[in-house]
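Hi R.,

As promised on Friday, here is the backbone we talked about, encoded as structure tokens. Could you run it through your design pipeline when you get a chance and send me back a sequence?
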């Protein structure tokens, strides 16, 4: 008997085979010359952050602590973001998140690894989890897909089963700024008691940082000494008043 499981495995298999044989058209310009989502010309024009605050990854004209980290540093010890969150990165991240363009996780990871490989690397990668209900709706967690690719390329283990989302918080973007902090309180729980000293949290975009801040606090309370936050993109701060 042919089960649904078997059929979907077969479909996956053919998709894989097809994508190995046929180049995927570039997601930005449509030209047919890429194996990881973008052609070389489009890839070369992405807005890579050259200098940033090492603590919060805000893009700056030189590498130095930003005013807001001098004033009130975030929970994490260091942050790394590859791109400025601006076109076409915003669109590509939406594709990765909602439109099944998982091929992008490999592309983003490859570019991230290029910049990360000379650092002292963490011992464990933990993706920022989705609440189980959101995971069911979406079918996958884009941060986990990215973390898996980073794990493979950097040879660092990834665990998605130790930091759990216990409250189904409304998406941060749908809330006014002042509500966002409240929204995140006690959103995470740990499923483990012993952790390595140096961990990187993996997410797609670093915006206000409230989500990762709460996740980092949760790890800190469990004794993790060195916490980094790695994201594909960083929004640019225009307002330094908070
Ligand atoms: Zn292109
Ligand atoms: Zn900063």
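Update: got your reply. Pasting your designed sequence below so it's all in one thread:
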């Amino acid at each position: 008997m042919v089960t649904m499981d078997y059929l979907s495995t077969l479909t996956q298999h053919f998709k894989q085979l097809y994508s190995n044989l046929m180049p995927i058209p570039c997601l930005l310009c449509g030209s047919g010359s890429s194996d990881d989502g973008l052609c070389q010309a489009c890839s070369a024009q992405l807005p890579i952050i050259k200098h940033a605050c090492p603590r919060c990854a805000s893009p700056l004209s030189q590498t130095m602590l930003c005013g807001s980290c001098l004033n009130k540093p975030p929970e994490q010890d260091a942050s790394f973001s590859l791109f400025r969150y601006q076109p076409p990165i915003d669109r590509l991240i939406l594709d990765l998140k909602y439109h099944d363009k998982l091929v992008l996780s490999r592309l983003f990871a490859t570019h991230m690894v290029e910049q990360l490989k000379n650092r002292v690397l963490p011992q464990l990668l933990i993706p920022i989890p989705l609440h189980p209900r959101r995971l069911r709706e979406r079918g996958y967690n884009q941060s986990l897909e990215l973390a898996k690719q980073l794990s493979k390329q950097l040879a660092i283990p990834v665990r998605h089963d130790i930091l759990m989302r216990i409250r189904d918080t409304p998406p941060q973007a749908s809330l006014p700024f002042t509500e966002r902090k409240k929204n995140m309180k006690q959103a995470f729980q740990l499923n483990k008691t012993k952790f390595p000293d140096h961990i990187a949290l993996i997410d797609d975009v670093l915006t206000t940082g409230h989500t990762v801040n709460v996740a980092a606090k949760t790890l800190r309370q469990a004794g993790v000494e060195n916490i980094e936050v790695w994201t594909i993109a960083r929004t640019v701060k225009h307002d330094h008043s908070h």
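One thing I noticed while checking it: The mean pLDDT is 86.

Thanks again,
M.
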